[in-house]
Design a protein that fits this description.
alpha+beta; 4 helices
Length: 129
């Protein structure tokens, strides 16, 4: 493994984990990850394993008070910070995705990575609630 791969994978991991935690803080839960096959997930660990087992996946979320499934498309292997490349729209879900985009964009700036990770996670988590 090259250092570039390890750095990119660490950034992807931060972005996907931030998305999962921000969604959970806003009342969403993962229903399944569509990664070549549908994998039912009931925990963050299961969702992370399913996403990182393939290059492309779709995470499907539900909310007890908002009908339908909401999704985020994950494509691994580019710059890392851009791994969440598309998503559905909807009341409440837009705020979750905006918080994730803000977090990911901060990771695109190499000088901002160490400080941005902890600080933005807290700020985005609060804004998603």
């Amino acid at each position: 493994m090259s250092k570039t791969f390890e750095t990119r994978r660490a950034i992807e991991n931060q972005c996907v984990r931030h998305l999962l935690r921000t969604a959970q803080a806003a009342g969403y839960s993962v229903v399944y990850v569509d990664a070549e096959t549908r994998i039912a997930c009931t925990s963050e660990t299961q969702a992370m394993q399913a996403v990182f087992a393939v290059d492309e996946s779709i995470i499907r979320f539900s909310h007890p008070e908002r009908p339908g499934l909401h999704c985020a498309v994950i494509i691994l292997g580019n710059d890392g910070w851009d791994c969440i490349c598309d998503h559905s729209l909807g009341e409440g879900w837009d705020e979750v995705m905006a918080a994730s985009a803000t977090f990911s964009q901060a990771l695109a700036e190499p000088d901002a990575r160490p400080a941005a990770s902890a600080a933005l996670h807290q700020r985005c988590k609060k804004s998603a609630i």
